[in-house]
Amino acid sequence: MHSLKAGSRVVGTKQTLRALEKTKAAEVYVAKDAQQQVTFRVLEMAKEQGIPVVYLETMEELAKACDVEVKTATAALIK
Questions:
Q1: Listing from the earlier edge strand, what are the strands of the sheet with 25-31?
Q2: Rounded CA separation 5/3 (Å)
Q3: Contact 30, 56 (CB under 8 A)
Q4: Distance separating alpha carbons of residues 20 and 60, to the nearest angstrom
Q5: Quick check: 2 and 28 in contact, CB under 8 A?
Q6: DSSP 49
Q7: How far is it, in rounded angstroms, from Cα 70 to Cα 48?
Q8: How many whole angstroms separate alpha carbon 42 and alpha carbon 73?
Q9: Which pLDDT band holds residue 4 (cuts at 50, 70, 90)?
Q10: What is the distance between the alpha carbons of residues 2 and 45, in angstroms, rounded to a whole number?
Q11: pLDDT tens, 23-44?
């Protein structure tokens, strides 16, 4: 999780999906308490591309890991 703060990343489902579409995501982070309809496509694309998924307990925890103030459902580490 240290790599989320230090590395190049995108935060939020829309940005994460964009990174996956452009095959630029190296690792995907998903909050377990996020709505399934929000995370479903991200998880599907990550699985299709063989990208590792790291689960965090809450959206608040993921936001803190990304060093942002707004809760977030997904984030991605960029290659």
A1: 9-11, 74-78, 25-31, 53-56
A2: 5
A3: yes
A4: 23
A5: no
A6: H
A7: 28
A8: 10
A9: confident
A10: 24
A11: 999 999 999 999 999 999 999 9
pLDDT confidence band for 2 (50 / 70 / 90): low
pTM of the predicted protein model = 0.92
**Count of domains forming the chain:** 1
Looking at the chain, the number of H-run helices and the number of E-run strands are 4, 4
User: What percent of the chain lies above the pLDDT cut of 90?
Assistant: 89
Q: Which domain holds residue 10?
A: 2-78
CATH number of the domain encompassing residue 54? 3.30.1330.30
